[in-house]
Request: fold
Amino acid sequence: IASLSASADVLALGSIEIDTNTISEGQSLVTKWRGKPVFVRHRTQGEVDQVRSVPTDSLRDPQTDDERTNAAQPKWLVVLGVCTHLGCVPIDDAGDYNAWFCPCHGSHYDRSGRIRKGPAPLNLEVPTWKFMEDNTTILLG
Ligand code: FES
Reply:
């Protein structure tokens, strides 16, 4: 029993819950998970349509928006807020795609967190997450 509860504690430490009711459409929440910033974006339908209209083969790190989001609730995007160039924290509502922009050396990401312009080689990383049974709480980790 002692070792079982120890494992549960370790699991609990590595996970966080985010109440999506606190994030209005068109807004992002910045939180911290395992020492790294995390961006949780409640995307508008316009943002979803825009990133889904981009031809995947035109992307540096080709990934569909569908691969990066929850199929049942595509308005929600969760990404690590760590630029894949040299690790700065991108700023929100900025850059050529009016999404995330890393001012360190000028990397522009879209509302799917995909690299679109600048030196970063890869898309912002999507961590492991899911909706809990209430369909409104995100469990990260
Ligand atoms: Fe982001 Fe260099 S660390 S562009």
In short: The CA atoms of residues 19 and 65 lie 23 Å apart. The longest strand covers residues 27-33. The chain is about 20% helix and 30% strand.
